[in-house]
Write a structure and sequence with these properties.
Elements lengths: L1 H17 L5 E10 L3 E5 L5 E4 L16 E10 L4 E5 L1 H18 L3 E9 L2 E6 L3 E6 L16 E9 L5 E5 L1 H14 L5 E10 L2 E6 L2 E6 L11 H4 L5 E10 L4 E5 L11 H4 L5 E10 L2 E7 L2 E6 L21 E10 L4 E5 H5 L6 H4 L5 E10 L2 E7 L2 E6 L20 E10 L4 E5 L7 H8 L5 E9 L3 E6 L4 E6 L12 E10 L4 E5 H17 L6 H6 L1
Parallel strand pairs: 3-5, 18-20
Antiparallel strand pairs: 1-2, 1-4, 2-3, 4-5, 6-7, 6-9, 7-8, 9-10, 11-12, 11-14, 12-13, 14-15, 16-17, 16-19, 17-18, 19-20, 21-22, 21-24, 22-23, 24-25, 26-27, 26-29, 27-28, 29-30
């Protein structure tokens, strides 16, 4: 064991003895001093020292333990240190790489040092200063110096102390552009960097080229915000959709990498099926419903209610609301999907006679007031007609005087024709027939209060105030010219229930009351009211 240890020490000593100026060895950084440089272990007996001027990089960029290639410049046994250089062996290697790059056309990396007359100074491999002509820089004269590392093509190289190095960015970019267009085609998937995002679309970088990503190519779902989908500076994958080498224009698509929901729509949403979706937008002409990302359908207003309603759809639907609808048409090529809300709810006339019977009194809403009567809706899609003769027990000349649209009323079902989707209704039969009370309470020869409703050539149409029944008074039986709305007392002359007619007189009532007054003054009389009426 001791013999092996001694041999190893001896071999190491021989190695140390062979080290001398000019040799290139591997060293390990042991200390870093930004002002003095590096201390290294290069395998010799002495401490290795490298001054800042003999380093490839700034001293502070090195780390203890880092390995570097160095050349021994001088060994000072008396002081116990050796002077080393990293720069000299590195420079020789860099010269070789530079020569190969010029011959092979391989790009080299460097950074901008300063702007000079006619161009820029660029440092290559951290040791060589090259000239970049302004015409080859792809930079404007007033532009700031680019930061960081960049690639260049070596277009001229003469080695030696009086040699020269000329580089170009333009030549490299031109070569990259030609290479891109020759090696790519429409449909290729490429990786790009998002450069700028706007409402109309985004610009992305593909190497030296700028491509356009239109807003409509971001997602199949048009509701997706481009600002949520893309972030400036991020790297994404896209598919090339347009490629024009002559114009050097490229258009790409993000949504093309996702399945198009319309391709499967015909199989997934067959006509006649009931689907569930979310209300996305409400327009005056209908409701847009989202079935899945990128696939919206329209419920036209004519497919929302069975009746022809004029309503504010926002009172019935809210964005985000889940609803069911029936697919009635689908066109994948035009991206059109027509839905029906009312058909999904079912035809209200199906089973109508099970829900309603003739003679039922139900609530309804006046949809239309016509000269001939009313159209009344008793449920969505189920309407009936109230004929003019069924509006009131009295004669109605103008239905608008009694009813208005959207008015809630009670109606009695007179008949149902389910096959022809018709229903006959009555308003007046929801109320007692006033003639029943008339027959019981009003007698010929009795006095009643009436209101003038209309003046005719032959007389006046009155309404008995307590009974809401019409009566007729001839003009010759009016004490004076009467105006519509005037209230008067009249005498019932004739009552004809079977014809629903009443004849009254204002003059006769006044004559009767004058006679009664006269009789009181005269102390009585044998004449009766019947005698006066006969007279």
């Amino acid at each position: 064991m001791k013999e092996n240890t001694s041999m190893n020490d001896f071999e190491r000593y021989l190695d140390f003895a062979e080290l001398g100026p000019g040799q290139v060895v591997e060293a390990v950084v042991t200390a870093v001093d930004p002002a003095e440089g590096l201390s290294v272990d290069f395998g010799g007996k002495q401490e290795g020292r490298i001054q800042p001027s003999e380093l490839v990089r700034e001293p502070s960029s090195y780390r203890v333990g880092e390995k570097i290639r160095v050349q021994i410049l001088k060994i000072n046994d008396e002081e116990g240190y050796a002077m080393l250089s990293e720069l000299r062996p590195y420079r020789r290697s860099a010269e070789k790489l530079l020569r190969e790059a010029k011959e092979s056309g391989t790009p080299v990396k460097g950074y901008f040092v300063q702007q000079v007359s006619g161009g820029y100074i660029v440092r290559l491999f951290n040791v060589f200063d090259a000239f970049l002509p302004g015409s080859e820089s792809l930079l404007r004269r007033e532009a700031e110096l680019p930061q960081g590392e960049h690639e260049f093509l070596v277009i001229d190289y003469v080695p030696g102390r009086r040699g020269r190095i000329v580089v170009s960015r333009k030549a490299l970019v031109e070569r990259q552009i030609q290479s891109f267009f020759s090696s790519h085609t429409v449909g290729d998937i490429v990786e790009v960097k998002v450069e700028r995002v706007k409402a109309s679309g985004a610009t992305v970088k593909i190497g030296p080229l700028t491509a356009t990503l239109p807003r409509e190519e971001v997602s199949h779902d048009p509701s997706v915000s481009i600002y949520d989908a893309l972030k400036e500076g991020e790297t994404i994958k896209v598919k090339i959709t347009k490629l024009d080498p002559n114009q050097r224009s490229i258009e790409v698509s993000l949504k093309a990498l996702e399945p198009d929901p319309w391709q499967m729509a015909v199989e997934k949403y067959k006509v006649g099926t009931i689907v569930q979706g979310t209300v996305k937008n409400i327009a005056p002409f209908g409701v847009f419903v989202n079935l899945e990302p990128g696939l919206d359908g329209l419920i036209h207003i004519s497919e929302i209610f069975w009746g022809n309603k004029k309503v504010d759809l926002k009172k019935f639907f809210k964005p985000g609301q889940l609803i069911q609808a029936e697919v009635i048409e689908i066109d994948p090529e035009k991206h059109r999907l027509a839905l029906s809300y009312k058909r999904a709810q079912g035809d209200p006339w199906d089973g109508i006679t099970e829900r309603y019977r003739e003679g039922d009194i139900v609530n309804g809403v006046v949809l239309k007031v016509l000269p001939t009567g009313l159209i009344v809706e008793i449920e969505d899609g189920v309407t009936g007609l109230v004929p003019k003769s069924e509006l009131a027990w009295n004669k109605v000349n103008d239905p608008t005087e009694l009813f208005r649209e959207k008015q809630r009323i009670k109606v009695k079902i007179l008949s149902i024709d389910a096959q022809n989707r018709k229903m006959r209704l009555s308003v007046k039969q929801t109320m007692p027939d006033p003639w029943e009370k008339i027959v019981e309470s009003v007698k010929e020869g009795g006095a009643v209060v009436a209101k003038v409703r209309a003046k005719l050539n032959s007389g006046y149409v009155l309404e008995l105030k307590q009974y809401q029944v019409e009566a007729f008074m001839p003009s010759t039986h009016a004490s004076e010219e009467l105006k519509e709305g005037a209230e008067i007392e009249v005498l019932v002359l004739r009552l004809i229930p079977e014809r629903r007619k009443i004849l009254v007189s204002q003059k006769k009532l006044e004559e009767m009351r004058d006679y009664e007054e006269y009789k009181k003054k005269m102390g009585g009389s044998q004449k009766t009211l019947g005698d006066l009426l006969k007279k």
